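User: Hi! I'm working on a homework problem where we have to compare a predicted structure to a textbook description. Could you give me the structure for the chain below?
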Amino acid sequence: MWVAGCGLVLSMTAHGMALAGLALPSGKFVWALHIGIFVVWLPTVIALNSMPHVNRNDIWKVAFAGCPTWMRRGFYILCGYAVLNFVFVFATTAGERKRSTGDAPPSVVRGFSGHWMIFYAAAFCTLYSRVRAPHLYVERRCPLGHTAAPTARFCSECGHEFSMAHSEGE
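Assistant: Happy to help. Predicted structure tokens:
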């Protein structure tokens, strides 16, 4: 989780510098943020796959259930910004000549850093939620033994309503 947080801060810093048109002092080392995504996504994918009985359409809702509201909203705002950033970078740099020096020009860093921010933020939020809401990773059953998703209010088979204490794993 902390590595994902550091990656998020570094990618936001790189993005801010690219927005300002500044060359990064790290030069080619900024590409290490690509590798860092794989480092933080291995535990993120393991955490996502260890949630019992979660509908894949609800995976992010459940994965972020342990996060405060501001964090969830911030992530979705960041996703919207990254999409707009990508469209803007694509539209404004389509005719630029490619450089072969290996250094990352600000326009290229701006394009990639928007994606880095999303991946690091998603990993951070997922792992934060994993630490703060471990009950999401415990199989739940209604009194009749039917399995239920961690955030379900009702059993999908018999309609039993889960109490708040039961849904929080207490």
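For your comparison, note the following. The first strand starts at residue 140 and ends at 141. Strands lie at 140-141, 147-148. Good luck with the assignment!
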